[in-house]
Structures are given as structure tokens and as C-alpha cells.
């Protein structure tokens, strides 16, 4: 049998080292020799002796935060010996290695594909968000030492924050937790109206300090209890903002 389908670039990529690696730009290969966490429903194929166990939002504490904030990751634990292939709607996949206690990544839960169990993570209120915006109030913060696979809707740009930096909160995929973040109404930056017409940019995120921001060429729609359209401001009026701020902290 002969076909371009069988080109070497489409063959399974082999490696003697266990862990997360790219099969290609849209497919993650997990060479499983123990445990790895992944987004529920992301498995597209596997070989070997592998068990899949639903983890919900990653524990009762994270489950409660997930329900309150609309942020979180529906997880499954993959355990055993074998190869597992993961994908998310043909999105581009990138690997990030966190290398110790001083490395931290704040990431939109919708962009998390898989990560090694050596990493610690939690749901945190984005620093400076308050209750102003209807998108991006809560993120998943990762720290420690290990590898994480993230997805982007298209080829992203990585901005080095060496000057005042701003991004649409629905396009910001992740950023260094060392950065100081804030939310500003777009009209304060001159983006709210143009010749009497709205630009569609209600809020803008600001970043300052030393670090990076990853921005994808697409906007994730807002959602969730706090993320739903209009609910963030109402929640703040009802005093939920203060309660969640105390529960989740800010970063």
C-alpha cells in the first residue's frame, strides 16, 4: 500500500524518555510510565495498559472554586504503561517546562491540555481584576517543577513585558505569575468608542514587571458564574466579590 499518508512525518515519534512530547503541532504524545493529568475528553488514541480515572476539578477545594468562579480544568488521571495521544479541536499545542519554586504560570483553564503530577496548581483571582470585567477574572496558577502542555487557537505571540503591555483578556492565554496585572475600562485607553461607534473592546488587561504574556490570535468567549455576561458586576454588587477574593486570593 502506498500513500503520502504514510510519510515519515506522520509516523509515531519514538523516544526512550517518558513524559510529554509533541507528536506534531496539534497532537500531544504522553509516554506514560506512571501518572499524568489531562483534560477530560482529550484522548484520541492510546496503546498499552492505561487506566483513565475522572478527577472532576482536581479535589473538593478546587471543585468548589470551580463552581463559584466558572474557572477550572475538568481533569482525568492517566495511569499505567503505554502511549496516549491527546488533542483539543486541532488547536496548536506548546510545551512549557517549569523549573522550580521561582517559576510560576497563570493560565486560562480552557488552554490547559495536560501536565505532570509534580506540578502544583490552584484557582486564583487575577490580581487587579476586582469585579469589573466579565471575562478572565480567575485563572489556574501552576508552580513547581514539571512540564505542562497548553493549547492556543492559532499561532500565538509571546510578548516580553519590558514596557507597559496590554491585551484583550479573552486572548491572553497565560503569563508569568511574577507580573503585576490590572484591568482597565477600554475607554480610559481610547479604545471604547471610535467616531461614536463601539470598538467591541470593553476591558483591557495591563501587565507590568518582568516576565512574558502569551496572546493567541483568537478570543475565548466568556463563561461561568462570574465570567458570564453581566454577572460579574451583579456579583460585586451583592458582595460576592469580597467573599471570593478572600477565598481565592489574588494574582
Structure description:
It is built from 3 helices and 16 strands. The chain is mainly beta. Strands 1, 2, 3, 4, 5, 6, 7, 8, 9, 11 and 16 form an 11-stranded antiparallel β-sheet that branches. A 3-stranded antiparallel β-sheet has the order 10-15-12, with no helix packed on it. Strands 13-14 form a two-stranded antiparallel sheet. The chain is globular. Mean pLDDT is 78; it is low at 62-70, 131-136, 193-200 and 222-248.
Q: Overall pLDDT, averaged?
A: 78
Helical stretch count? 3
Protein structure class: mainly beta
Helix content: 10-25%
Q: Would you count the extended β strands for me?
A: 16
How far the N terminus sits from the C terminus, by CA atoms, comes to 56 Å
Largest sheet: 11 strands, antiparallel
Computed Rg: 19 Å
| Order of H and E elements | EEEHEEEEEEEEEEEEEHH
Strand content: over 45%
Low-confidence runs of at least 5 consecutive residues: 62-70, 131-136, 193-200, 222-248
Which descriptor suits the 3D outline?
Answer: globular
Q: How are the secondary structure elements laid out?
A:
Blueprint lengths: L18 E6 L2 E13 L3 E14 L3 H10 L5 E12 L5 E16 L4 E4 L3 E7 L12 E15 L4 E4 L4 E3 L4 E5 L3 E6 L7 E2 L2 E2 L4 E6 L3 E4 L15 H7 L2 H9 L3
Antiparallel strand pairs: 1-2, 2-4, 2-6, 3-4, 5-8, 5-11, 6-8, 7-8, 9-16, 10-15, 11-16, 12-15, 13-14
Amino acid at each position: 500500500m502506498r500513500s503520502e499518508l504514510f510519510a515519515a512525518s506522520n509516523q509515531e515519534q519514538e523516544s526512550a524518555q517518558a513524559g510529554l512530547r509533541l507528536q506534531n503541532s496539534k497532537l500531544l504524545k504522553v509516554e506514560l510510565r506512571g501518572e499524568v493529568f489531562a483534560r477530560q475528553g482529550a484522548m484520541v488514541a492510546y496503546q498499552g495498559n492505561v487506566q483513565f480515572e475522572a478527577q472532576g476539578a482536581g479535589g473538593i477545594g478546587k471543585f468548589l472554586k470551580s463552581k463559584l468562579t466558572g474557572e477550572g480544568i475538568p481533569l482525568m488521571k492517566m495511569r499505567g504503561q503505554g502511549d496516549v495521544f491527546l488533542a483539543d479541536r486541532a488547536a496548536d499545542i506548546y510545551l512549557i517546562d517549569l523549573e522550580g519554586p521561582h517559576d510560576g504560570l497563570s493560565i486560562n483553564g480552557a488552554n490547559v491540555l495536560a501536565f505532570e503530577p509534580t506540578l502544583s496548581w490552584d484557582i486564583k483571582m487575577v490580581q487587579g481584576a476586582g469585579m469589573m470585567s466579565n471575562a478572565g477574572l480567575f485563572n489556574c496558577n501552576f508552580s513547581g517543577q514539571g512540564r505542562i502542555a497548553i493549547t492556543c487557537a492559532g499561532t500565538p505571540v509571546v510578548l516580553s513585558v519590558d514596557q507597559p503591555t496590554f491585551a484583550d483578556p479573552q486572548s491572553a492565554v497565560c503569563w508569568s505569575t511574577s507580573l503585576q496585572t490590572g484591568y482597565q475600562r477600554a475607554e480610559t485607553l481610547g479604545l471604547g468608542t471610535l467616531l461614536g461607534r463601539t470598538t467591541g473592546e470593553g476591558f483591557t488587561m495591563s501587565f507590568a514587571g518582568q516576565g512574558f504574556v502569551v496572546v493567541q490570535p483568537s478570543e475565548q468567549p466568556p463563561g461561568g458564574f462570574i465570567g458570564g455576561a453581566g454577572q460579574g458586576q451583579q456579583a460585586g454588587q451583592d458582595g460576592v466579590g469580597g467573599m471570593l477574593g478572600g477565598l481565592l486570593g489574588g494574582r
